[in-house]
Write a structure and sequence with these properties.
Blueprint (H helix, E strand, L loop, with lengths): L2 E6 L11 H10 L5 E5 L6 H9 L4 E7 L4 H16 L4 E5 L1 H5 L1 H5 L6 E3 L6 H10 L10 E4 L5 E3 L16 H7 L15 E4 L2 E3 L10 H4 L3 E3 L2 H15 L3 E4 L8 H11 L5 E6 L1 H4 L4 H9 L2 E9 L3 H6 L8 H11 L5 E8 L6 H21 L4 E6 L9 H8 L8 H4 L2 H7 L11 H17 L10 H17 L6 H9 L5 H4 L2
Parallel strand pairs: 1-2, 1-3, 3-4, 4-5, 8-11, 11-12, 12-13, 13-14, 14-15
Antiparallel strand pairs: 5-6, 6-7, 9-10
Helix pairs in contact: 9-10, 10-12, 14-15, 19-20
């Protein structure tokens, strides 16, 4: 029986996290097929280890998880090299990037299959079919290219009961890489673990890469099972903090409060992602319980203070600019830090309107800071995702914007920046507009350095703040070189790119 090599390409420098997505795939075949994991974040040159496995001739299947950005670059380089050296290897990609850009991936000539969404059933079913030389066109959640060049997308699988899935094989992962290596020092704690407690999201935001894959579907593990997993890692390897990397951890108030009740005696600190319009409906008692259980900071996609843009983005039809400000103020009494992300540079009929929208968002962000200075602000420049049918995406395509057609184009320097939502390459944004967004971000981060940068001491914070405050008050954002210099010298951390 052929073996499986699972690869987690490097996603960020010096950032070690439990590779949950690829570990889920490992769990789906554990006990039936032999498998190994190579984590690009833990290897100086992952190709050396990959080569050592493939050269044995025992491994026929090579599974990748691929996100846009830095991970894509290493994934493409590895896939090309492997297909050249080991042409009989079956290359299987999963993750947001291949699911949203299947043509570029499959026409590359070195990727054979895409798992389109969860692979808990699709991946083992595909391996079974290939091992037995049986048809695979009826396997759900699969994208592949026929011999005549046609791209086939099979039907979507219903989301599975997450409590019914096999436990993640942490102990076997520990034989490849010590689990303690993945428990890094962050703002949250000395040994912070990454964890996924749910998949998907029940909303259809028109700028979100999750939407085409999950189509407003969401399934979560029970609070009891989440607690059980977390406690296992705490007791066995000493984890003291948790980053929940769910797309939306706080969909259910009941589940969130139950988890808070369970985790409170463990004295752990934690973080998760939420929607403002969902969580603003939580009772005060629920918010208090969540904070008392160790939740210090929550990430919210605020996106815009402009109600018209929020409607374009399809934020569920219930989020408003006033609500964003009111909720930031409300969280003060619970001592929960709101981490708000904003997306600037959305399309408009004229450049004057685009500029006006940017100016509005800058003023709005300052209003948020005025009511709750502890609010963390993450600024992205709008980068289109293929949410076909949405009004926002129609505007994007009407403007002349096009995605790259080949994988090689996707890893050009300009498109790498696009994936990080820093340089969007959109025709309605001028270089001057992009500069204004970036310069405002620099000044804002000078006045309010992120609390998540644990290396920036109080003296450095005060020095940057002193330099930046005058610019902030006078709305002078041009050429903030003095702030950039201090941030570069002191290696200021940007959480939107580097995490905590």
């Amino acid at each position: 029986m052929n073996k499986i090599l699972l690869f987690n390409p490097r996603s960020a420098n010096n950032k070690y996290r439990i590779p949950n997505s690829i570990l889920n795939i490992a769990a789906s075949v554990d006990g039936k097929y032999d498998w190994v994991i190579v984590d690009g974040n833990c290897e100086h040159d992952p190709m050396v280890k990959i080569d050592s496995y493939l050269s044995t001739g025992e491994f026929k299947y090579f599974g990748f998880t691929v996100m846009p950005g830095p991970q894509l670059k290493q994934a493409i380089a590895a896939a090309k090299t492997i297909k050249q050296r080991y042409p009989n290897t079956k290359m299987i990609w999963g993750g947001y990037f291949p699911s949203n850009q299947p043509n570029a991936v499959l026409y590359s000539g070195y990727v054979d299959f895409i798992i389109n969404g969860p692979g808990d059933l699709a991946f083992p079913a595909l391996i079974d079919a290939l091992e037995k030389n049986e048809p695979y066109e009826f396997i759900r959640n699969l994208i592949y290219k026929t011999t005549d060049g046609k791209i086939i997308k099979t039907a979507k699988e219903d989301l599975l009961d997450q409590d019914s899935l096999p436990a993640l094989p942490y102990d076997k992962l520990n034989t490849f890489y010590p689990i303690t290596k993945f428990l890094g020092k962050t703002y949250l704690g000395e040994k912070t673990m990454a964890y996924h407690s749910s998949i998907g999201c029940p909303f259809t935001c028109s700028f979100c890469a999750v939407v085409p894959i999950y189509e407003a579907r969401w399934k979560a593990k029970s609070a009891q099972n989440v607690y059980k997993d977390v406690k296992y890692i705490k007791d066995k390897w000493g984890a003291d903090a948790i980053e929940f990397h769910d797309n939306n951890f706080f969909v259910s108030e009941k589940r969130a409060v139950e988890f808070a009740r369970l985790i409170k005696p463990e004295n752990m600190t934690w973080w998760g992602m939420a929607r403002i319009d969902t969580m603003s409906k939580f009772k005060d008692s629920s918010l208090a319980a969540i904070r008392e259980s160790g939740c210090k900071i929550i990430f919210f996609g605020a996106e815009s203070g402009n109600n018209t843009i929020l409607e374009q983005m399809d934020k569920g039809g219930t989020q408003t600019g006033d609500q964003i400000i009111e909720f930031a103020e409300r969280l003060k009494k619970f001592d929960i830090i709101p981490e708000y992300s904003f997306v600037l540079g959305t399309p408009a009929p004229t450049q004057e309107q685009v500029q006006s929208q940017i100016d509005f968002e800058i003023d709005f962000i300052k209003k948020v800071k005025a009511v709750n200075p502890k609010t963390e602000i993450v600024i992205y420049t709008y980068s289109p995702v293929p949410t076909e049918g949405s009004e926002l995406f129609k505007q994007v395509m009407k403007s002349g914007f096009r995605f790259p057609e080949t994988l090689e184009d996707w890893i050009s320097p300009a498109w790498e920046a696009f994936d990080l939502r820093k340089n969007p390459l959109t025709p309605w944004l001028t270089p001057e507009m992009i500069d204004k967004i970036r310069n405002f971000e620099t000044v804002l981060n000078g006045v309010y350095p992120t609390v998540t940068d644990i290396r920036l001491n109080m003296i450095k914070r005060m020095a940057i703040k002193l330099v930046a405050t005058m610019r902030y008050k006078a709305s002078m954002y041009h050429y903030p070189y003095e702030i950039k210099l201090l941030q570069k010298v002191w290696r200021y951390r940007q959480p939107e790119i580097q995490g905590f």
